[in-house]
Design a protein that fits this description.
Elements (H helix, E strand, L loop, with lengths): L2 H34 L14 H24 L2 H7 L2 H12 L7 H20 L9 H8 L2 H29 L11 H7 L3 H40 L8 H25 L4 H23 L8 H23 L15 H7 L39 H13 L18 E2 L12 E2 L2 H11 L6
Antiparallel strand pairs: 1-2
Main location: membrane
Protein name: CYFA0S07e00892g1_1
Organism: Cyberlindnera fabianii (Yeast)
C-alpha cells in the first residue's frame, strides 16, 4: 500500500471517527437532558441504565479505540493533530440537530473561533517524541520539573473538587450557626447562584477531564514504548518489573476517571461548550507534558509559543460565544437568583434541583389547589342567617361536598396559578401548578355545566 493511500485511509477514518465521537457525546448529553425532564416523583436512573446513554457511550468508545488506533498507525503527527479539530465542527452540527440548540450568529462565530484556535494549537504544538527504555522512562518520571508539574496538576484538581463540594454543601444543607462571621472575601468564593454553579460545575469537570485525559495519554505512550521495545529487541525484562505494571495500571485508572468527569460535565453543560473546552485543555496539557516530561522546554520557538497562546485565547473566546446563547431548561425558573448564603439566611433547606424561592416569614402559605393543606369552607349564601349557617355546617360535616371560596376561573396555562386575590393588608404567596395539575384543570374546564 502506497504512502498516499495510507494517508487517505487514515484521513477518512479520522473524519468518520470524529463524527462518530461527536454523535456519541451528543447522545449522552441528550440522555441527561431527558432524565432531568422526567417527573420529580420518578426514580432516578443511573446513566448506564438508560439505552440512549449506552448507545452514546458505545459510539464514543468505538471512535476513540478503533478510530484512534488506525489514525496513529497511518497518519503522521503533522496531519493527525490538526485533523482532531474536525470533530469540533461535527460537534456543533450534532448539538444543533440532536439537542435542537439554536444555530445563531453566536454559534457561527463561536464555531469559527474554536476551529481556528484548535488548528493553531494542534499545528504549532506538534512535537516529535523519541522512544525510551524502562530505565530512561523512570529517570524522566523522577525528574524534579516533572514531579513539580504533576504535583501542581493534582493540587489543582483537588482544589476544584474541594470548591465544588463546599458549594454543594452550602446549597443543600442548612447550618445551625450563622455565616455572618465569614469574611466577605471568603464568602464571595462560594456565594454563587445555582444557575451559575451548574454551569461552573460542568466547566470545571471538563477541565479535569481534559487534564486527566492528557496525563493518561502520556502513560499510554510510555506503555506502548515499552511494548515496542520488547517486541523489537525481544527483551521482555521490563514487564517483569513492578513499575511497568504501575504505569499500565495508572493509565487505566486515569482513563476511566477522565471518562467519569466527562460524563459529569455533560450532565450540566452542552456538548457545544464542553467539547471545545476539553479539546483545548487536553492539547495544552499534552504540550506541557511533552515539554516537561521529555525535557524539551527549549524546543519550541517564540513563534510556536505565540501561536499556541493565540489559539488558546481563540478557543476560549469561541467557548464563551457558544455558551452565551445557551439556556438550560431549569435556568428559566426564578431560583437562579438565589445563592447558598441566601438559602442559609432565609432558613431554607433545598436540594440542588429544587426551587430556592420560598415565602417570606411574614407571608402566609394560603392557597387553594389540588393537594393544598386544608380547604377553607364557606357558606354558599353570603346573607344567610346564623341558623342556616349552622345547618349548612352540620350538613357539610356529614357530606363529602364542601363549598369553597370563589377564587376565579381555573386556567390550564402552563404557568397558571390559583389562589385568593391579593389583599392590600396581607401578602399571599402563589403556587405554581405542576404538569399533572394543569392537565387535571384542563379536564375540569372541559366538563359541561350541570343545572
Amino acid at each position: 500500500m502506497t504512502v498516499p493511500t495510507t494517508i487517505l485511509i487514515g484521513t477518512v477514518v479520522g473524519v468518520l471517527s470524529s463524527a462518530t465521537q461527536s454523535v456519541g457525546l451528543t447522545l449522552q448529553r441528550k440522555s441527561h437532558m431527558l432524565e432531568e425532564l422526567r417527573p420529580s416523583n420518578a426514580p432516578y436512573r443511573a446513566p448506564y441504565h438508560r439505552p440512549l446513554w449506552r448507545w452514546g457511550f458505545f459510539l464514543f468508545l468505538l471512535a476513540n479505540l478503533l478510530g484512534s488506533s488506525i489514525q496513529i498507525t497511518t497518519l503522521p503527527l503533522i496531519i493527525l493533530s490538526p485533523l482532531q479539530a474536525v470533530g469540533l465542527v461535527f460537534n456543533s452540527v450534532c448539538a444543533a440537530i440532536i439537542l435542537e440548540e439554536g444555530f445563531t450568529s453566536h454559534s457561527i462565530a463561536g464555531t469559527v473561533l474554536v476551529g481556528f484556535g484548535a488548528l493553531l494549537i494542534a499545528g504549532f504544538g506538534s512535537i516529535e517524541e523519541p522512544n525510551h527504555s524502562l530505565k530512561e522512562l523512570l529517570e524522566l518520571i523522577e525528574r524534579p520539573p516533572f514531579v513539580a508539574w504533576i504535583s501542581a496538576s493534582v493540587t489543582g484538581v483537588l482544589c476544584i473538587l474541594a470548591w465544588v463540594a463546599v458549594v454543594k454543601v452550602l446549597h443543600t444543607k442548612m447550618f445551625s450557626a450563622s455565616l455572618d462571621h465569614i469574611p466577605c472575601a471568603v464568602r464571595h468564593l462560594f456565594d454563587i447562584p445555582v444557575k451559575n454553579f451548574r454551569f461552573a460545575r460542568g466547566i470545571l469537570y471538563g477541565i479535569i477531564s481534559g487534564m486527566l485525559s492528557a496525563h493518561s495519554l502520556l502513560l499510554a505512550k510510555s506503555a506502548v514504548e515499552l511494548l515496542l521495545n520488547a517486541l523489537v529487541k525481544k527483551n521482555w525484562e521490563a514487564f517483569s518489573n513492578i513499575k511497568t505494571w504501575i504505569i499500565v495500571g495508572s493509565f487505566f485508572v486515569l482513563a476511566i476517571t477522565q471518562l467519569i468527569f466527562l460524563n459529569k460535565g455533560l450532565s450540566f453543560v452542552s456538548t457545544s461548550v464542553l467539547y471545545p473546552l476539553v479539546f483545548c485543555v487536553y492539547n495544552i496539557t499534552n504540550i506541557v507534558n511533552g515539554l516537561v516530561f521529555y525535557n524539551q522546554i527549549g524546543i519550541l520557538s517564540g513563534l510556536q509559543i505565540t501561536m499556541i497562546i493565540l489559539g488558546t485565547l481563540l478557543v476560549l473566546l469561541g467557548v464563551f460565544s457558544l455558551s452565551w446563547r445557551l439556556e438550560e431548561p431549569h435556568d428559566e425558573e426564578s431560583h437562579q437568583y438565589k445563592t447558598a448564603f441566601d438559602i442559609h439566611d432565609r432558613g431554607q433547606v433545598t436540594g440542588e434541583h429544587t426551587s430556592l424561592l420560598g415565602p417570606d416569614e411574614e407571608e402566609t402559605m394560603e392557597y387553594v389547589s389540588f393537594g393544598s393543606p386544608v380547604p377553607e369552607p364557606e357558606d354558599y349564601e353570603p346573607n344567610s342567617t346564623a341558623s342556616s349557617k349552622k345547618s349548612q355546617s352540620s350538613v357539610s360535616a356529614m357530606s363529602p361536598v364542601v363549598n369553597f371560596k370563589d377564587y376565579g376561573s381555573l386556567s390550564s396555562e402552563p404557568n397558571a396559578t390559583i389562589g385568593p386575590p391579593r389583599n392590600k393588608h396581607k401578602r399571599r404567596s402563589k403556587r405554581m401548578l405542576s404538569y399533572e395539575q394543569n392537565e387535571l384543570l384542563a379536564q375540569i374546564n372541559q366538563m359541561p355545566d350541570f343545572p
